[in-house]
Amino acid sequence: MRLLLIGAPGSGKGTQAKRIAAHYHLTHISSGDLLRKEIAAGSDIGRTAGRYVEAGDLVPDNVVMDMLRGPVEEAGRGNGYILDGFPRTVAQAQAAYLVARSLDVAVQIALYLEVPREELLRRMHARAGAQGRADDTDEVMLHRLDVFDELTAPLLEYYARRETLLCVPGDRPVQEVTDTVIKEIDRVRAI
Ligand code: ADP
Ligand code: MG
């Protein structure tokens, strides 16, 4: 099974992706986690990506695509993947689809975790305290939410048109969100 999660920063993508991956034995591929690893290692990708991530801007498409191609192909040929945080724009989705389709590892289901803005800010504040992420400062948080609304939210229409979109309310306790996501996936898989 090949899934991807769409959600604003703080919507619970990372939290849910780990749980869904464990439930269906999928590989969890988080573009944010991979970028933070590259940045910490000081690699070429990390040095290019660092200033975008710190500012709350999107890292250029080709950098992210190059980083993800290998892991997505490998997991796609195995038991499947759940992508967390990619694609972030319609252009990325289109480019990724062309590559993935030619390898026969294209996404089958897109899941949207819908959470109101006040709750997103509350969670990002809590995460900033707990994890100290450089992009969880007030100014950058607000900017990331704007970037989501402007560039990433159009993905919802893109996947809805392809009839691969499932929407789940993310403003519920963690276990309840997981249960709903699994129920929705099993429902469409049974069709
Ligand atoms: P994302 O990867 O979408 O940015 P995270 O999984 O890092 O989101 O979650 C952001 C923050 O919100 C984390 O501190 C996490 O513990 C918390 N969180 C995630 N899901 C929920 C939930 N359903 N209810 C309350 N807090 C949550
Ligand atoms: Mg995340």
From TrEMBL:
Superkingdom assignment: Bacteria
Catalytic activity: AMP + ATP = 2 ADP
Subcellular location: Cytoplasm
Top enzyme class: transferase
Region (NMP): 30-59
Entry binding sites for AMP: 31, 36, 57-59, 85-88, 92, 133, 144
Keyword Iron-sulfur listed: no
Known partners and oligomeric status: Monomer.
Entry comment, domain topic: Consists of three domains, a large central CORE domain and two small peripheral domains, NMPbind and LID, which undergo movements during catalysis. The LID domain closes over the site of phosphoryl transfer upon ATP binding. Assembling and dissambling the active center during each catalytic cycle provides an effective means to prevent ATP hydrolysis.
Annotated family: Belongs to the adenylate kinase family.
NCBIfam families per UniProt: PRK00279.1-3, PRK14527.1
HAMAP family reported in the protein's UniProt record: Adenylate_kinase_Adk
Function per UniProt: Catalyzes the reversible transfer of the terminal phosphate group between ATP and AMP. Plays an important role in cellular energy homeostasis and in adenine nucleotide metabolism.
Protein's UniProt name: Adenylate kinase
Organism lineage: Bacteria, Bacillati, Actinomycetota, Actinomycetes, Micromonosporales
